[in-house]
Amino acid sequence: MSEIPSYKTSFLQACLSANVLTFGTYTLKSGRKSPYFFNAGSFHTSTLLSAISTAYANTIISFLASNPSIPKPDVIFGPAYKGIPLACTTLLELHRLSPETWSSVSYSFNRKEAKNHGEGGGIVGSSLNGKNVLVIDDVITAGTAMRETIDLVGKEGGNVVGFVVAVDRAEKMPGPREKEEGVDDGEPRMSAMGQIRSEYGLQTTSIVTLDDLIAVLREKGDEGDIERLEEYRRKYRASD
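Above: the chain's sequence. Below: its structure in token form.
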């Protein structure tokens, strides 16, 4: 396995030290029992906001450099609610790293309920009309929020050019029996990120994946946590 970039390890270490990333038994929206949980809502101090915005900014720079066919975004869009501070702080960090590249780029986010007074509308920040939009969010589970964001940006006249999330769980979507009975049928399936790529032809990326987390924990993590994560990965690894 190639060496993990320093911004990834720094991000994971910040998550672990602040208990943003925790281990135990957690029930996901799908009903699946997970041995780890990532809570982006815990990034509420200046130190943690700096850590996550630095990681997002470096991820975006690497993502665009590796995919030259993706047009430079005009807008960094953060879906309400957790995506809002992520979009704002990441754009600031991008400008700090490369002001000549990012000085003309804007941020934007949506209101959960459209405002019918003042400036009105459902979008705060830059208009999305005619703009190339890079979406930034915390995690993806079933992909429902991603689809809603793609539809929202499209209705506003924008063009989504990619998605960036903090953690890609890289696990397959639940099958019918798992949804109804909590039983995995063992059949291969794509991840939610993989489905978005396939359905919409969009490129996606993440700061880290489950593989990155396991690699960092091997350096100085709890053996029990590592074993549970590896077992979970073997059982639910996505086909994409």
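DSSP finds nine helices and eight strands in the chain.
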